[in-house]
Design a protein that fits this description.
alpha+beta; Anthranilate synthase; two-stranded parallel sheet; 7 helices; about 30% strand; globular
Amino acid sequence: MVNINLATYTDPNSLIETQDLLSRYFNFFFDDGCVVQTEFDSFLLLSNPTQLDFSFLKEFKSAKLSISSSSKCFLSPFYREYDLQFCQYSHGLTINRADLTNLLKGFINHAQKTLPNIQDNTLNTNQSITWTQPGFIEFEKSFTQIKSWFAQYGTQKAVPTIYEYSTWIPNSYFTRAQLLLNSIENSAQHQKVYGVFHEGRLNTTNHPKFGMIGSTPEILFELKNGNLKTVAIAGTLKKSPTTQKDDLLKSQKDLHEHHCVVQFITNKLSRFGAVSTKGPYVVELPTLYHLKTDINIDHVDIEPLNLINLLHPTPALGMLSSFQNWTDLSRLPFQKDRQYYGTPLTIQIDENHFLSLVCIRNLEWNKTGSYISSGCGIVWESQLIAEWDELELKRESVKKMLGFYNSTEQNISSNTNPKFNENGIELNL
């Protein structure tokens, strides 16, 4: 790895203005790049710029630029339709929150002046994005199927997912920058912002054009110098005037759901030595509360890719069962089109430091459209309507984070989503 001293960096082409250099950098980044929030006030941007002058970074005191042949991002679809692939990047930019925010704002302002008629910019106009809603009947089928697994296979928990779909795609780099900026500004202390941008030119043939931007409360692991940190995130409560965060610690359903995840992770890691836990405790996000337990183990001798295969997916996104494989979830409705939702995004920060995020609370897109997905943990105590409402709460939290203020909705199913009274009885409206 070669570190570049930006303070003494000389401009090889002084005729190019700073704003144009900034635009060139983000054009490379939003075409083929990856960003991960590594700490609360630190972000790592990976990209493959060619023949680019970095003098525009001089005024950003936190910026540290390195050139390396070992910067990697590991990624594959949730169900592993093909082997885990890696994306290789030549440049890594480490920067703090304030400087990254200012960089993005500079790029956006420059783009607005030079490209005033960007077609997919719906974030700062009155134009709406139409989201096709998931059908309640299909989710009810998933719920009923999972409940039958409890008695049939001794399954304790399973996580179905559903999604909203739109034909709108954030094709312009300007719009991607605005989405990333919104994610940074609207995320809480217990979330990590991330993004992957791929226009089909990575060094692997298995990744088609796709992208995603999100802010996750969940890491699969952080492995640094042999010390392993992970978390269990499960159990959800809406923030409202009538709820308090400690209500989660009194909910038997949420505690059961949470314990399933802790049990799975600690059992998997116990082969390496003594596992320490702290929790459960309640963490606060902008619109939701979650139960969280910190899980640590020191002096772990395992390769990061083997650790991904060992832990993915935990019952926070997968299943806890004595006689079932988690891939049985693929038989449920809404799973045919599932790609990267819930998959681990793993980056190599340096030689002995790896961070793996769980890709939830995000916008995902491909060449045909965009998706916002959500999942819920089904245990024995789960109630159908409560789980359906939780799924919507999670998707709404993503829309608020990303700045989709003018979205409209329509049903994905011919079955109209039903309305219920407080006792769960369907209303004929």
